[in-house]
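Give me the fold.
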Amino acid sequence: MEKYQLYATMGAGFESVVAKELQSLGYDTRTENGRVFFKGSQRDIVKTNLWLRTADRVKILLKEFKAMDFETLYNNVYEIDWAELLPVDAKFPVQGRSVRSKLHSEPGIQSIVKKAIVNKMSDQYHRRGFLPESGNVYPLDVHLYKDTARISLDTSGESLFKRGYRIEHGGAPLKENFAAGLLKLTPYDGSHPLIDPMTGSGTLAIEAALIGKNIAPGSWRQFAFDNFDWFDPTLHKNALIEAKAQIKPLQQPIWASDIDQSILEIAKLNANNAGVLQDIYFKQIAIKDFTTEMTNGIIITNPPYGKRLKDKQSAEALFTQMGEALLKYDSFSQYYLVGDPDFEKFFGKSATKKRKLFNGNLRVDFYQYWSNRNDFK
């Protein structure tokens, strides 16, 4: 099968996590900011879209070249064999981005790329400069960085965080791939108990169950490649059958609690849609009243902060309650995603390690407190 130059995109700070995921799926990788490159066939395009938990999209790199002016950009795009990729009625939206490049007008870049493709396809299909664009979508993008242009075809369509199990959103839910990324920054693999004591709409607990049960995160959705006319439709069907056969029982319990019963009902609906409702113990309980008999596991949560708790004082009071309720469980490794730089002061302990991340546009820290056991960090 033909091999493509592929790359996965991801949120800032998750490059190494996605690279590890790709390596564990059997690929050699090369990493740069926001992208991890690998090679693969149509089968690999299906596999990575289906299985990558922490990436945003999987794209085919069609061409890379230096472009300091619009003529060079136009000529290089025109040279691509577009009729091989796009049927005559293809709908092909072009997204453009430019960073630190001479060609800096993004609308201008998009329009030149679009014009070059239309003219080439008109020549190839013997049409006079008119293409109906009434068929399936082939999402294209052009990215310029320091005058190097990359033209890519997006095989995912909607971002991979849109798993398809989450129908209702709680107050400020974590994106699914962001939640999976946080879990991948812990030692969690399903072989230890996991607790989320402020679960909100349940995303962390559900993503943990998917990891623990080895359920492919893309199991519920379609991808852009499903509508490419040159793509083998049997590959996706077969990959889903194979993925189903690899699901295993959860080894250790997952506990998810919250003070708000109405948001827990949403979390249960989401868990049910993801097929993991039976694997998660949901309970309504305030953090100050939290207790557990479990040991040697992971506590991970995204406590309300920023817009979710407008009042800074109530956030700080909550962090103090968290410290009083949770720090005594020192056989657990503990992980907290918080947007308040004073978190440690109110929680009552300095983190073993801190990692700077961006949840959307919000700068946050991932505070890591390792357990008193050397084997679990």
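The chain has a mean pLDDT of 94.
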